[in-house]
Amino acid sequence: MIDPTLVAYLRGLVPARSPLLLELEQRAEAGFVPILDLETVSFLQVLLKIAKPRRILEVGTAIGYSALVMAGACEAQITTMERDPERAAEARANFAKAGLQDRIELLEGDALELIGGLGHYDFVFLDAAKGQYPRFLELLDPHLETGGVLLSDNILFQGMVSGQEEVKHKLRTMVNRLREYNELLAHHPGYETTFLPLGDGVSLSVKK
Description:
The protein has helices spanning 4-12, 19-31, 38-51, 65-73, 85-97, 111-114, 133-140, 172-187; strands spanning 55-59, 77-82, 104-108, 121-126, 144-153, 191-196, 202-207. The protein is an alpha/beta fold. The radius of gyration is 16 Å and the shape is globular.
């Protein structure tokens, strides 16, 4: 993975976040809630300003941190999905605290079951169950418009996917699924994809 000194330097260059985002960063650290790495936050903000999406779909809300980051970077309507009831409730409270409950729609339930009933989007952010990424790609494809962007987080998963770190036995299936996902995107005839060693690894795909 990237040298820790370089990571610290890059994180130090990330612009100041809002008081609410800083509060959620502290909450996530204290409660071991996975949220975006700071360098990925900065990348996502710039990407959204370039892409200027109208409708964003996020798969995996957690406490709402990334949805709030996206809402602050563009004017798109955001639909986000979370299956954990406690985290969904916390996310709703955070959206209301930010005054963004009208722009961010939270759907509670299993994304694998919810995606089929959704409309079309020009930007999708995938950050849910890593072992389901190949299945998510299959389900999301009909809902992503031509020219739309698919951004996937954690595609290196702590260095295990690339083989830099030893894979724990209980994580082997998930890591293998992530490797499968990366190969699918790398050779998918319907997408142009680049892979970046940013944060925990991200892939950036554009639908042809």
